[in-house]
């Protein structure tokens, strides 16, 4: 291996442009890294080396013909809930075993257009329901920094493969923190774009009003480059916003001054029970941003404490409707029954794992007659209050700094028997999805046990430029992102 | 939301959701979901009678394309995903007895 797999998108893009390497070289290096490490990390569910190399050859031909796109020839891993024509799309669920996608998701079509190499499909919590990737029915994924610990979730495979240099970048999805939390646990950068910024066409839906596809990368600049490739209006998605895509990557320069910027610090985000090392690392990061010229202002998000309650009503309600399509009739697994109702019940019982069943049942309950107003409608009203909090906060600041998670990555099995305990871990990420804002997570330190700690930078709707600028400035003046796990 | 949660009838709701559950699952989920429902009772602290609900973070409207014939999914590729097929159609259990 020539260590190409350890480089970033921007570094490889420069090498490719200079003729110092080919896309085939990069893919071969990444495949060797997967071969060496994925036995212990377990990020990949499916990998087609032959196809990846064929794509790399095609990318090299495009480059030889004069194309210079920044993603051209860069291998990207795909979370297993995005449809890629001709490939399986299981959502890490037994109910979708045997399904082959007959079309490309819009983000996949955009990646192909950009010349990226679709490397393989990575593990996740079943139907994106979970925070540790322990709810995966088809594989087990470990945190590359400590194999006894979880990689986070639901995009655990997407974060683990990037942290382990088994991909240059990956795509994940974030419904309540599923990009930012695993990115924080694995020491990567993860961006949850503003709702409507990235098309959801071809994403297997969990909660339609919350889901957003986004990048997980090694640096903030790489996230910006990948964002540029996947953002943009899509007539196939009614929630896609008609708005020009900024040149996110080009705007990140060597200038790391934050002079003139106001960064908010919400007191409610330093929650009871937060690991002291996490709190200290985040507070140190805030001081670092102050030293870069930013003014730090106190802001308040008083209704953030209700986010988990609101989230687990709204998300499960939407999931119960979205997952009704998995009935054993048109695709996936089927357990025969004496009539359709018998078939549905048996198929969904055998096909869904316990967490998915739990959430569908909870969602069905909160939408059922007599409970709709009491649970679902009330949750939607509190969602308004959470949104209003952010609207008020952004009148006082350009971006908000906060922790991503109350603790670093925990040991496997620590929370599997207590769903509510695991749900509460999402307290710092879910408010952003409910409000529809953008946010990113990037490394800001390490706990004494060697596990990464993440800083969350939250922006107002469609202010990705701002959070990327702050993140880039912080990253370029610290060394956390340069550390690698020992595998 | 009730002032006092009387507990969820897991078996009944699972039937609505078309999921067969074992007795063990019913018992396990009953305890876990009651815990979650008890947790969300905290929303009762808030008076939201004058607050408009938010269904989406951004306004979402129906999007209509032009009424023009376009390409559709490949028929054979769609059929290939059917768990059971015959003569280009999906096979399902009999619904009405002759």
Quick overview:
The complex is a heterodimer of chains A (487) and B (98). With 487 residues, chain A is an alpha/beta fold.
Task: Describe this structure as you would to a colleague.
The complex is a heterodimer of chains A (487) and B (98). With 487 residues, chain A is of the alpha/beta class. Chain A has a single domain (4-261, 395-482), classed as Alpha-Beta Complex (Amidase signature (AS) enzymes). Chain A is 38% helix and 13% strand. An eleven-stranded mixed beta sheet of chain A has the order 1-3-2-4-6-5-10-11-9-7-8, sandwiched between helices. In chain A, helix 2 (23-41) runs antiparallel to helix 3 (49-64). With 98 residues, chain B is mainly α. Chain B has a domain at 1-67. Chain B contains three helices and two strands, in the order H-H-H-E-E. Chain B is flat. Classes of the chains: A alpha/beta (487), B mainly alpha (98). Chains A and B meet through helix 9, helix 10, helix 11, helix 12 and helix 13 of A and helix 1, helix 2 and helix 3 of B.
Q: Regarding quaternary structure, how should these chains be classified?
A: heterodimer
The main sheet of chain A comes to: 11 strands, mixed
CATH superfamily name of chain A? Amidase signature (AS) domain
Cα end-to-end separation of chain B: 46 Å
């Amino acid at each position: 291996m020539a260590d190409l797999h350890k480089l970033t998108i921007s570094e490889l893009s420069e090498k490719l442009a200079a003729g110092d390497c080919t896309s085939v070289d990069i893919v071969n290096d990444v495949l060797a890294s997967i071969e060496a490490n994925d036995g212990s990390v377990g990020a990949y569910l499916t990998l087609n080396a032959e196809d990846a190399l064929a794509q790399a050859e095609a990318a090299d031909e495009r480059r030889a013909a004069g194309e210079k796109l920044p993603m051209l020839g860069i291998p990207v891993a795909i979370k297993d809930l995005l449809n890629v024509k001709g490939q399986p799309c299981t959502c890490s669920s037994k109910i979708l075993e045997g399904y082959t996608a007959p079309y490309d998701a819009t983000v996949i079509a955009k990646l192909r257009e950009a010349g990226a190499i679709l490397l393989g499909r990575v593990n996740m919590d079943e139907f994106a329901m979970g925070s540790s990737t322990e709810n995966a029915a088809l594989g087990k994924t470990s945190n590359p920094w400590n194999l006894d610990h979880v990689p986070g979730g639901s995009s655990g495979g997407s974060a683990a493969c990037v942290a382990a240099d088994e991909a240059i970048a990956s795509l994940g999805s974030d419904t309540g923190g599923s990009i930012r939390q695993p990115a924080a646990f694995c020491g990567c950068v993860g961006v949850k774009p503003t709702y409507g910024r990235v098309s959801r066409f071809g994403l297997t839906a969990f909660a339609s009003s919350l889901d957003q596809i986004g990048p997980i990368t090694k640096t903030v600049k790489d996230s910006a480059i990948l964002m540029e490739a996947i953002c943009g209006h899509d007539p196939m998605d009614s929630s896609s916003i008609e708005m020009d895509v900024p040149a996110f990557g080009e705007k990140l320069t060597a200038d790391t001054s934050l002079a003139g910027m106001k960064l908010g610090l919400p007191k409610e985000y330093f929650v009871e029970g937060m690991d002291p090392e996490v709190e200290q690392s985040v507070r140190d990061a805030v001081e670092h941003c102050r030293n870069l010229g930013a003014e730090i202002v106190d802001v308040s998000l008083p209704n953030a404490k209700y986010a988990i309650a609101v989230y687990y009503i709204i998300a499960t309600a939407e999931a119960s409707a979205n997952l009704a399509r998995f009935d054993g009739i048109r695709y996936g697994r089927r357990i025969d029954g004496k009539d359709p109702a018998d078939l549905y019940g048996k198929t969904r019982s055998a096909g869904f794992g316990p967490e998915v069943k739990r959430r569908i049942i909870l969602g069905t309950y909160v939408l059922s007659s007599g409970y709709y107003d009491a649970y679902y409608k009330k949750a939607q009203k509190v969602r308004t209050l959470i949104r209003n909090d952010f609207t008020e906060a952004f009148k006082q600041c350009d971006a908000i700094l906060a922790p991503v998670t109350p603790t670093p990555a925990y040991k496997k099995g620590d929370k599997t028997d207590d769903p509510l305990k695991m749900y509460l871990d999402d307290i710092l990420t879910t408010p952003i999805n409910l409000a529809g804002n953008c946010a990113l997570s990037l490394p800001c330190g390490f706990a004494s046990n060697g596990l990464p700690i993440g800083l969350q930078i939250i922006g107002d709707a469609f202010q990705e430029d701002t959070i990327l600028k702050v993140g880039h400035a912080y990253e370029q003046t610290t060394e956390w992102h340069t550390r690698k796990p020992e595998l | 939301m009730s002032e006092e949660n009387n507990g969820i009838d897991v078996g009944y709701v699972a039937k609505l959701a078309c999921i067969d559950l074992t007795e063990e699952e019913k018992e396990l989920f009953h305890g876990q979901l009651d815990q979650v429902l008890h947790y969300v009772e905290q929303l009762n602290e808030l008076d939201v009678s004058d607050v408009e609900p938010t269904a989406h973070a951004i306004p979402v409207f129906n999007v209509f394309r032009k009424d023009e014939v376009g390409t559709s999914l490949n028929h054979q590729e769609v059929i290939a995903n059917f768990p059971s097929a015959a003569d280009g159609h999906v096979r399902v259990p009999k619904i009405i007895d002759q």
